[in-house]
Amino acid sequence: MAVQEARQGGADPAAHEGGCTCGDCPHGAREGHRRAVAAFLVKRDEYATGQGLPAAVAHSASASRQWVSEELAQAAEAVAERGRAEGAAWLTRLWQRTAVVVWAGVLALLLVQALTAIGAGWTSARTAGLLSAVLLAGALTAASWFHRARGGALAPVVGEDNRLSTSRAVAGSWVLLVAYAVLVLVGRLAAASDHRERDALIDGLELARGAGVVTVLAVVCGIAVLVRRVVGLRVQGQRLQKVRAHRPRAADLLTDDSGRGSFADIQYVVINAVALAFAAVRLARRPDQLPDLPWGLAVVVLVSAGTYLAGKYAEGGRPVILSVVRAREAGDLDAPIRTGDDIEIRGTGFVPAGAQGADRLARMVVRVGPVNVHVPLVPVVGGFDNPADDLLTVPVPADVEPGRVDVQVVTAAGVETNRYAIDVTE
């Protein structure tokens, strides 16, 4: 529907042009980004079928390819700019949504407590639980307001690549549960009048009662810190390619940077969600102590954390050039590589995860000797034929001197491949 609207010109395309970020405006940042994407897709598919080429370049395959690549690169940059504006506006509005979700959770807790109190009666534990939830919700709402430009309460779990961090989200969930459990004990302790009840509540904070949950809390928090360090070192060492996202998405918790489901992330989230649910039920049943997470379940969480950390060490890899050959079209004679010829660079890892967008592909550069050659965008219906993750096609520029020269690829993430020597003849 968006593509059809772009073909027909849309409704009042001059209105706002996507620069507005007000929440109720139909022509806001989100609408501007959607229109820019639709217009880009139409342009890409038209160029893929040979439409829209000016007569001055239509006679030359290399000239038309270069012209199409430049046009698509400029259009892709406009789309990326709209995407960044839409992401910033989305983050600004997110703090209100997080606050609504938090207080909706408090209301749900109140309803559950009211329903379960029928027949059993209202107890001081229920009052302490409700007041603790209100205090925690108030703190989260205040934090959301102070970080309203960065996603509200979700700001601490957004990584440096502008994606939701699985390790931080899991650690944050355990921190909130333990904080809530301690607040419940504090509330009950403040309301207790009998010294034996106060002693029992203090004993509920003993390590022997909550060793399992304390161990899990320490491990998941350590994993969150360690994963950040591991990823940072791997990026600096060019062993991992990271591309910044336009905005965080809930799917980031279960997928890799390219949007594919990640086993390490999924199992980490699922197992910790199950353990959190068990701990919450135990707290509801025994509000006089920290949730006594059984060691069997705690060990399962630790194994899951180890798997997640191993997955972070194993992911990624440096892009590699395996071979460089002269590109040959049907009917061409076999010949050595000369200036002006197209060469095929075969390898792996040329397109980093999350860099499949045209604006990222347009940033790829191939060094042929001392000359930097931007990889041309070759559109096909529904995507791009060049560049690809395992194959790049670029022309050998006329400024390259005949002789042995090195070829090196610089990806959209700024990572350099190995150097591959080729012979260029006159």
Automatic annotation (TrEMBL):
Keywords: Membrane, Transmembrane, Transmembrane helix. InterPro entries: Ig-like_fold. The keyword Ubl conjugation does not apply. The chain crosses the membrane at residues 100-122, 128-148, 169-191, 211-231. The keyword Metal-binding does not apply. This is Membrane protein. It comes from Streptomyces variabilis.
